[in-house]
Amino acid sequence: MSQKTPHNYFCDIVPFTTIPLTREQFFWYTSDRPISPGTLVSVPLFRRTVHGIVLQCRVTKPRKSTSMQLKKITRIIHKNYCTHEQIALASHIAETTFTSLGTVIAQFYTPPTHARIQDTPTISHTHTKNIPPLTKTTTSLCTDILAQEKYTFNLLRDTQETARDALYLHLIHKILTAQKTAQILFLLPEILLAEQIASALRTYFNPDEIVVVHNKIAKGTLWRTHQAIRNNTARIIIGTKKALFQPFAHLRLVIVDEEHDISFKQWDRAPRFDARSVAQTLARIHNCQLVAVSAAPRITKKVPTPLGPEFSSASIHIIDMRAVHFERVKEAQKKKRKKPAPALFSPTLIEAIRSAIARKKQSLLFFNHKGMSAFSLCTDCGALLACPDCDRALVLTAEGHYECFHCTYTTSIFPQCTHCKNMSFRNIGYGTSKIENMLTKLFPTARIVRIDGHSMRATHAATEILKKCEDEKIDIIIGTQMALKDWRNPHLSVVGIIDADALLSIPDISADERLFAFISNATAAVTHKNAENGTVFVQTYKPDYHLFSYTKTLNYTAFRKDTLAERKLLHYPPYWRVIKLIFQHKDKDKANAYATTWHTKITKCNTKNAWRVSDPHTPLLSKRRGLYRYQIIIRIPNKTKDTAPLPETLSILLRATPPRTIIDVDPISIV
User: Fold this and answer.
1) Domain positions in the chain
2) CATH class of this structure's domain 136-306
3) Model-level pTM greater than 0.85?
4) CB 320, CB 147: distance < 8 Å
5) pLDDT tens digits, residue range 72-123?
6) CATH code 2.30.30 for 576-665
7) Are strands 627-637 and 612-613 parallel, antiparallel or unpaired?
8) How many whole angstroms separate alpha carbon 633 and alpha carbon 637?
9) Nearest-angstrom CA–CA distance, 189 and 193
């Protein structure tokens, strides 16, 4: 049918859906009036209606549209919803992560909600603290950063207590004072840290100008925050990866705290971007400064600038768990008892926790596995209780059922063995929930809180846990890596890394770097200015491992030098860029065929041997969510100090890969 009403305007619109990378990332629609770029609209797409963003509106017809009957825009939802800078950022993410532009730009969408009466009390405007003074080194750095008029990437290494905090506060204060419309983005890896930093900054700056952005915020609050950032009434924006997608009105500074943290990388779903790299692009687009700080920055070609001398008051103890086990075996032999299982807690760590409780201090125990066990075996046939959709063991939860950590599969409280139909299982190993139960028995009067993926699911869980810790209502914190952060908590006295070997046993190039960062974080967490410094305990069965010679004194410079030499020899980042391709299909043979075919195509395309391609192989997780997986690792020389772009011939080839193919550029793991 011909359209009854003439439409004189033609719009390029990106729908919130996946479009093949081999074609243009927008569709053409008509309108009877002009629409400004960035407007949020509703458009028909095949048999459904979807949201989309207008990229361009013009009077002339698009090419090849003479014989096409274009559909009309259904509804204009919000004018100028996306800024020009947001569209530019979305385009960059889509291009560098090989993701459909519609999938990326959907990340920028915050659902509009109706205003309602606020039940929460108004935050006091009283500023209770004065900004701490800067050291000689940080004064010079602060002056240099403020003097830079264009984008500059400043990578800094925190080496003493509160050095980074004082630098942050002075930068924020001077920028907000000098520019009445300036906005500052404070990017953090975890929700708990974001809430803690927001709570701290409200004591120095106007609370009405501080907002928090992360995935656990209620939709209504998130929409009001979105509008406050757009209208420039929010001047300090604190958040996780989601904060990058906000409509900044006048961004003047981007701060990336805990720069080393792998939580900045979104690896589980598209777009698989690194928030640290996106933050650099965001700062370039707004032509503002970027300051990235960590106690142990990532191993890159750029040398981080230290904020001061090395940790002089750090107390780090490497506990040899072999000696602990031998002592327990000797004791059992004397009393003619059965040989004991390896201990989870050393007597030294238990005594340190008991002493901290007596002094009304807090202890934090890190164990990088949630749940009540590591895996479970059938008591009759010995078969592993595994997820039917993933190549992974099911884990017992505190609620009594078993669940898969890689998909949504959950059993009833009476699961059956798939081989013999037995309903009895032996749970092996530990998780944070089980350790919490063990600590309750060891310290019956202690107040214990658990921080992991289970305990942090609720909307206000982070705020409630943080308040308990600040009010000294918690004695022991047990958690995964989201708990092991520098909280700037003056009550924290003891940090225990229960099983350092579990981190070292991962067959990945970054295993040593992550453990060094964890120990550095733990040391920063217990090193307090004008207060009693704490102690870090690292339990290991390999105390002679070369990494611990660096961690005893936190010698980052020597560790970085030796690690770079090793990576250069092995052709790993930062000297080579890595791309991980994962081909997936419900049929195992078809997944293998995809990988084999594309390995041949990539190899033929590499006529000048510009990159190295591994043979197709099964990854550590060979089946996930019902899809069999085969992967190929591509390594490309990175001869520049910055991140080198990918070869154009390879980029074109990757855009043509089949559906469900995962393209992970600069992955956090290659196993």
Assistant:
1) 9-83, 136-306, 316-371+431-563, 373-430, 576-665
2) alpha beta
3) yes
4) no
5) 999 999 999 999 999 999 999 999 999 999 999 999 999 988 755 454 444 4
6) no
7) antiparallel
8) 13
9) 7
